[in-house]
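Board notes (copied after class):
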Amino acid sequence: MNRLVRTSMFYMIFGLVSGLFYREFTKFNNFTGKTQLSVLHTHTLILGMFFFLFVLLLEKNFKISQQKNYRKFYLFYNIGLGITILMMLIRGSLTVLDYGALPALAGIAGVGHIIITIGLFFFFFTLLGAVSSDSK
């Protein structure tokens, strides 16, 4: 359970720092348009911090970490979210700096989303197994 608290806290810190970065970076560069940096803060807090706080509650009640797919869920979800957040940071920063769109970034972000989706499938398999074994 400590691992889940630390994971959630990491995403909380990163989410708050990304919000500060967005505000200061756009102000420093006199940027007033739209950029992915504006939603990086909320994506990180919701998909990272709040999601893992929710997983912590499920662990407390159902011991989901004892299920066979739990490690796969944890690994895939964090890797996918990390890639997605990194691509948002890079793409948003390049937008503020007025660089052209790099198509490869969209492709890499898409891979991040696919990996998150795989992680979510493992999450629901884990949850289903934990709830099924708890009801016996």
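Comment from the instructor: The chain has one domain: 2-134. Residues 2-134 form one domain.
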